[in-house]
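Follow-up to my earlier ticket, as requested here are the two runs.
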Amino acid sequence: MIEKMTKYSFILLSGETEEFLKWLQSKGVVDVSRSVKPVDEKSSQMFDKIASVRKTISILEALDYSKDPDYDRIREVSGSVVIEGCKAKNTLGAVSRLDELKSELSDATRQLKDVTPWGEYDKEALKAVKGLKIRYYCVSKKVYDPEWENDWAIVKVNEDNKSIWFVTVAPEDAEYNFPVSECPEPSVSVKQAEERIASIEKEIVSVKAKLLHLKEHYMDHIRKGYARKSADLDRYLASVVTTDAAEGYLNILTGFAPVENEKELTEELDRMDVLYIKEEAIEQDNPPIKLKNNRFSKLFECLTGMYGMPVYGEWDPTPVLSIFFFLFFAMCMGDAGYGLILIIYGILQDRKIINISMFDGLGKLIATLGVSTLVVGFFLGTAFGVDLTTVSWIPDSLKGLMLTGDITVGGSSYSIQMVLALLIGVFHICLAMTIKALLYTKRFGFKENISTWGWLLLILGGIVTASLAMMGVLSEGATKITVIVIGVISALGIYIFNKPGRNPLINIGAGLWDTYNMATGILGDVLSYIRLYALGLAGGMLGGAFNNLGEMVLGTDPTWQWLPYVLILLFGHVLNLLMSCLGAFVHPLRLTFVEYFKNSGYEGKGMKYNPLKN
């Protein structure tokens, strides 16, 4: 649900605004409307500094030299590093220098490779030779002609299986026309190239040691600096949006706080003798949104936030989203064994025993989804790609609960799981349309939503009537009367009264266009839910394929074959688990964001509650 907000308008002397904002930050409950982008040069500079510190934190958090071949040397040097000045600038400067050094090392390595065949030589001594010109060549052995040695003064310097390196010596003023092109003269000797590489590698170790020292000794300092700069920026942006009054002597500040904090906040404001106006927030005020849900639904608030927060007069979709995402994820995974793995991993992630940064704070959600996968996967009859209905140690009474096999509908056989997926889709969409009719009526009035109620009556009423008729609850005559009544009332709402007061012909045209959109849209939306069946089936079949492949390798009389058997199972099921998790996250999210939110009228254009705080 959306937590109720109280709107506060504070009237302050212009000189008191800064201190009052600091006090609001210390309380951490009042959300003062402010920009999320720079509004002037000062705020732009503050944004840039914060971005720099945030980048620094990201770099240092990802830093890991434990597998670096020079780790021991880096660790040793880091103990003597002295950091002066801004830690963020030191970090970014070190990273930039490290990139430069890596580029220099690549050039130096390439240079060493080029000069190594020429060996050691004294460049200055060669320059001292007067009247003679030394030229350098490198050709393949196929190109080299021994007859050249009869016509030119050639000295072979080096050769390998493919190439020959040689020089020619000739008078400077003599006519010279060698049949192949020259090579560039070696710029340095091998020793000089090796010394350059050693120098660069030493500096690389020094820079890495500096970064390691920053991570191990200054991370808390940098994080506190980031929090302080962010708080300063928040306070500045809040001060910028104040409204001047009384020729600049007064500032008017507007903010919102949860109703549950009203008593404590007003008592402190009264003690401070601050002039303020308090009133209940309404939708037109566009107050920030703070969600309040039970422990289960709260786990899924992050998914609601991915789409967008509701506006104040809207509804919180999280309770419904949580239940269906919980179910959809499990159906897409479709494997009880994988659910057990997710439970174990989620618990380890939540307790920081395993800590993958991209899943920070999601351990409980992962474990919860694992529970649903374990339960639903059992009823779907699959665990680690094994068909549970064929397992001898599972009692027949439990196998009878598994939703496997086919069901006959209209003389044709369909998979029970596919039919179940479609029925869930129909229910999900009908629920969305019901919520839309109720909430839109509450927000905008019944008169503006007659068409919405007409469609709901037609679709939901039609489904209920058909179901009752098929079960024999309604007689043939009663069914006909019910269908006629539903059809007439729905047609009036959809085609005649969809916009009261408008030209009837325009209403009819609008109704026909709406009919086309609904007919094509609803059908496509319902068919989208087949993915719940298809993904679960695909994951189970792939897991089973790896099991069969392992058994083929294992054979009937295994000895050493146990090792490849285990490797195949580990590789196959880890790959299948990762692929299944990706699909089980993306596709239920799509069913929620596209099919469900579209039919429920959810917009998600609200602003998240973000109070000023230190």
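Run two:
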Amino acid sequence: MENQLKNQTSPYLLQHAQNPVNWYPWCEEAFERARREDKPVFLSIGYSTCHWCHVMAHESFEDAEIAEILNQYFISIKVDKEERPDLDSIYMAVCQAFTGSGGWPTTLFLTPDQKPFFAGTYFPKTARMGQVGLKELLRKIHEKWKTDKEVLLESAEELISILSKSTKLESDLDMQIIQKAFQMFKCTFDEKYGGFGGAPKFPTPHNLLFLMKYYEKNRDEEAMKMVEKTLLQMYCGGMFDHIGGGFSRYSTDRYFFVPHFEKMLYDNALLILAYCKAYQLTEKHIYCDVAEKTAKYILQEMTASEGGFYSAQDADSEGVEGKYYLFEPSEIMNVLGIEAGKEFNQYFDITEKGNFEGKNIPNLLQGMQASEQIDSSIRAVYEYRKKRYFLHLDDKILTSWNGLMIAAMCHIYRATGNEEYLNAAKKAQNFIESKLCEKNTLYVSYREGQRSKKGFLDDYASEIFALLTLYQVTSDIDYLEKAQQFCKKAIADFFDEEQGGFFLYGKENEQLILRPKETYDGATPSGNSMMAYNLVQLYSLTGDKGYESVMEQQLRFLSAEATDYPTAHSMFLLALYDYVAPSEKVCHGQHCSLW
């Protein structure tokens, strides 16, 4: 069977193109049909390397019984969150309002006017362990739509009204917010295993970058202690791929041992930045080594021949999470021979008992012993692993994530002097300019010769960040001029002159039921935080008064947003630090703040 997704380029949408569910992409045609046939819309948002998205797809969207219900009573829409961060932001806020939490897949029911009246995340096909099943939920929603539709419509209007309310927030620029953030990090720091809070633990490298900036400014050893403990634990645990390089998305436990095995481009970009910064501050080569191993992984497995960087690698192989990464002692000895195999197994804690579901996640939590042979053994196991199971690659090229990796490649070049990394950064930048840019307009993604919709705030913020970093390591004025062009475009299209802050989508994007401003840093820094950082850098580098008023308004806006929970705004705190207490360091004759 084929549905309305068959001509899409998104790997996530194409994963569902053969479902018996008659999926539509997000389009007016779907909503027009919903209005004409008086049906609610079933909206499912996810991404191609999402484990629980795979689970729900296999259980429900590939199931004929579920498909029959959806096709008869609903209009079904699939959205790739990575290509439509505007939709993801709006409907994730809805999901959090309904349930108090969020996640993917995000499951929503909308009116034909795009307004939500029910939301959740993963649902099993049938009720299980106290969790409502999708089959029962679909029937209840259909029945309610037929018998009591006005109640659903009223609840949708009420929710949109609540989420639409906004007030102008501004605060004086106060360095106390920085001290408050540091104290909050101290309170949540896990002294035994690194990281902050309990499981699951996300790397959030921008938090570590803030703590390293705090250490630089205050020489507070406690800040650097938190950073080093976390960086070493993340590397030694199973979250780092000791065979192929690169980091998984997060740790499911407090030890940084058992990862959620998918690898995302943005995590690895930000982690390269953090390890490079730690190397600069401490001159400990282990941090540079980890950054290089990560960068080499990106160049080997996540880089297109034309220069752009791919988005992600899946957690699952043959339907099993982590299967690609797990080993048994006997297969290692079959690959390496008895003696080298035993040494490898001992080095990476690979045992007969196993450390994860009867098999083994290679790790160094038992300690790092010196070994002359281990590097050649790793290469052999790496080649064996590539042939053993298939690992899905999300090969779309996203402007926003590429901007982060371009900056990362610049900094690993600065740390090592290896021109390969700088050349990779320049080639990726050329790719953006040739495939994802038209004059001063950016586009979200590129795949199979096609680019998608016009860019969002994060695309502009990350691209400006990349260009400024390229300028700082090359002194090529062309990069600075391009950064200024994109910044002016971002201000014109996204900035809210009345209440401050930047909207997620601009004047040239599709206008939706809400117009969000994302200010908190999640797995990546928010577009607002990145723009604050970029504006401070541009003003510092150029002295152009045209940036000054927007920069100061943006800093005041984010100061108000960050007051209660500053640890969720680390990238903004870096910008604030550089504005209030600029660095004295100079790079290639230019101001250089983060590094």
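The only thing I checked on run two: The domain at 178-314+395-509+516-591 is CATH 1.50.10.10 (Glycosyltransferase). Let me know what else you need.
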